[in-house]
Specification:
Number of strands: 33
Bound molecules: beta-L-fucopyranose
Distance between the termini: 99 Å
Mean pLDDT: 95
Helix content: 10-25%
Strand content: 25-35%
Oligomer: single chain
Low-confidence stretches: 11-17
Strand order of the largest sheet: 1-2-3-4-7-8-11-12
CATH superfamily of the largest domain: Glycosidases
Largest sheet: 8 strands, parallel, barrel
CATH topology of the largest domain: TIM Barrel
Length: 677
């Protein structure tokens, strides 16, 4: 064939409709959103005045003198974030209390007037330099609500806010995300006015003009708020997106801080008008700011892994917060936890088992869109089918029987989010069998299921807004987390042990020996004993560390007027005693030689007992004091307290609180007794 003929064939092929890309399904992401989506995982740093006032929301009357980290090192934050696999960090430049971390020309309420670095410090600058050194993108959290500023609520404050944003967005290089918080609680110091100021959140901030300012100064920055415009809040602070999560949002119906946002809008909507993907934010501890009393509440590896699967695995980005401590460092426990997560995720998704498989499809649109594209690790290339073939499928043949327990699928979002329902199946002797199913996919969807063995698997796309357009598919075999089982006990005394991963077995013992009994059903316990338990991976024979619990008589027949929550075996609930006496009837007489007190474990604790007296009685009328003392470090470390005394038989007990840490009425999550000396 001569050159002209070749050219003609080429042109004809190129014009064939089946090799043109599909029409996008609107809405579609902007370039800025496409870039951002690939980051997936980045961190939050909550460090500001609240770190020193030990609050979550400062009132605005704090003195800059209070801000004084002893050992601040932003490079430590950046190192940890980068080692954990994060791609950026966002810092609270100004929180609701109004204190700012840089020497702003527009306020005295800043690091300039603090003792830190003799008032010459610029924390945003140190933060930016540290992030750049570790290859992290830089983001800014800026609270529109300001409980310090005298003009808050007036138009002048909006000018102040824009002036400060201009400083932040001009002086510190590229910013990848600007985070506008929707919270506004009303009352505040407001320059000494000490009053409640309500603003109309819809109109007061004139968001359109503020957004334009950010666009002008930082065209690539993503704008975050409940309402976007670029990225939206996921509607909760657990870090969980939804089984069905659309990146599409009826953006014009939403504004930051609106009351019904979480229930009504946070999942996104199938036919939403704008592309505004979800971001899941969560703190590695209960609070956003550091409180020493939460040192024992850093999220465990299984909790963090759950967050990963429920955020990144559900078409959302993940923003995990570090409450930097008063030294100005990420606490050792938080570091350990986040690095363990990074390592676990890296291991789980290290090897795509489909890499070696043969892939085929129910249909292909043409040469550029073959099924092979879902395995090439290039997000830009994708598999799709001729128009109209909504119910398409992909089949993978491993050649040999293979074990797997995770499915990862990605849609090519520049052409819009499409899939509404899909199923993963394996071929067995009885034909195709369902393993798992999902609704939306979006940028990334991960399904978890217990170990499956198969030679052939297929994904069927059952329903969608249009034909599926799939960038990548992966099957993985994640190793179960070898963590000790989770322990819970009922009031009846029944003990449950739940493995951290469904493919693990649990073994236990009640007599102090090595755990060797296979756990199958809840265990009734009604005496003082030591429970030892561990999880075992039946395939490798490897065991987790051990869980040890000192148990005692059950609380089944215990009663207490109005204080049921202190004897319900639920550490999450609590009772408040007023007057400060917790009195309990044990139902019958026991030889008592001690008691336990678990302080309130809820998010905002109050009424920890600091000074106590413990009394016992045979008839509920004549009381005898058997112990008296102090729970010394309970404010900072509210863990289970155990007190021993000389053995005494008694049916009634009372814990008398003589002083609480904060002067509030005494609270108790649980009260228990010890019957063995
Ligand atoms: C919320 C704030 O009120 C919290 O203090 C925290 O900053 C969190 C990320 O956003 O709305």
């Amino acid at each position: 064939m001569n050159r002209h003929l070749w050219l003609l064939v080429f042109v004809l092929l190129a014009c064939k409709p089946d090799i043109s890309p599909p029409e996008p399904v609107l809405p579609i992401p902007s370039e800025r959103q496409i870039e951002w989506q690939r980051l997936e995982y980045y961190g939050f740093v909550h460090f500001n005045m609240n770190t020193f006032s030990d609050r979550e929301w400062g009132f605005g009357d704090e003195s800059p003198e209070q801000f004084n980290p002893t050992d601040l090192d932003a490079r430590q934050w950046a190192r940890i974030a980068s080692e954990a696999g994060m791609k950026g960090l966002i810092i609270t430049a100004k929180h609701h209390d109004g204190f700012v971390l840089w020497p702003s020309a527009y306020t005295e309420h800043s690091v300039n007037n603090s003792p830190w670095r003799d008032g010459k410090g610029d924390l945003i600058q140190e933060f930016v330099e540290a992030c750049r050194e570790y290859g992290l993108k830089v983001g800014i959290y800026y609270s529109p609500w300001d409980r310090n500023h005298p003009d808050y609520g007036k138009p002048e404050y909006i000018t102040y806010m824009r002036n400060q944003l201009s400083e932040l967005l001009t002086n510190y290089g590229d910013i990848f995300e600007v985070w506008f918080d929707g919270a506004n609680g009303g009352d505040g110091w407001y320059g000494g006015a000490n009053e409640t100021r309500k603003v109309d959140k819809f109109s007061y901030y004139d968001w359109h003009t503020t957004h334009q300012l950010v666009r002008d100064l930082q065209p690539n920055a993503m704008l975050f708020s409940d309402a976007g415009p670029d990225v939206r809040w996921v509607g909760n602070e657990h870090g969980f997106a939804y089984e069905t999560t659309w990146s599409n949002l009826y953006r014009d119906s939403v504004y930051a801080g609106m009351p019904e946002y979480s229930e009504k809008w946070a999942t996104g909507q199938e036919n939403g008008s704008h592309w505004v993907p979800a971001e899941s934010d969560v703190s590695i501890r209960p609070g956003w700011y550091y409180h020493a009393y939460e040192d024992h509440k850093v999220k465990t590896l299984d909790q963090l892994v759950e967050i990963y699967y429920k955020s990144i695995g559900r078409n959302s980005s993940l923003l995990i917060n570090f409450p930097v401590d008063r030294r100005g460092l990420i606490h050792e426990k938080d570091e350990e936890a986040i690095l363990a997560l990074g390592k676990k995720i890296e291991q789980d998704f290290e090897f795509n088992l489909l890499g070696e498989s043969e892939v085929s499809a129910s249909g292909e649109r043409g040469r550029s869109f073959t099924a092979q594209n879902v395995l090439d690790e290039e997000y830009e290339s994708y598999w799709t089918v001729p128009d109209g073939e909504h119910k398409a499928s992909l089949t993978f043949d491993f050649g040999i029987e293979t074990t797997f327990n995770r499915l990862l699928v990605q849609e090519f979002t520049p052409l819009g989010q499409r899939v509404k329902s899909f199923v993963l199946e394996k071929e067995s002797e009885e034909g195709w069998q369902k393993i798992a199913e999902g609704t939306t996919i979006g940028y990334k969807r991960i399904l978890q299921f217990s170990d499956q063995k198969a030679r052939k698997v297929r994904i069927r796309f059952l329903d969608g807004k249009d034909i599926p357009v799939i960038s990548e598919v992966g099957l993985y075999h994640a190793t179960p987390m070898l963590l000790p089982p989770k322990f819970t006990r009922e009031k009846s005394g029944l003990v449950r042990l739940v493995p951290a991963d469904r493919d693990l077995q649990v073994y236990y013992s009640l007599d102090g020996s090595e755990p060797s009994i296979l756990y199958e059903n809840p265990i009734p316990v009604n005496s003082a004993l030591t429970l030892r338990a561990l999880s075992k991976n039946p395939k490798t024979g490897k065991s987790s560390e051990e869980l040890r619990e000192q148990l005692d008589i059950s609380k089944e027949n215990w009663s207490s007027e109005n204080l049921q929550q202190a004897i319900d075996e639920n550490p999450g609930s609590y009772a408040t005693a007023d007057p400060n006496i917790f009195q309990i009837d044990l139902g019958e007489s026991y030889p008592l030689s001690g008691f336990t007190y678990l302080p309130m474990q809820a998010r905002y604790p109050s009424g920890f007992i600091q000074k106590y007296e413990f009394e016992v009685s045979a008839d509920g009328e004549n009381w005898q004091a058997v112990a008296k003392g102090e729970f010394s470090n309970i404010a900072n470390n509210p863990i289970l307290q155990e007190v021993r005394f000389e053995a005494k038989p008694a049916r009634y007990i009372r814990l008398i609180s003589q002083q609480t840490t904060d002067g509030n009425a005494s609270t108790a999550a649980e009260i228990g007794v010890l019957t063995k000396e």
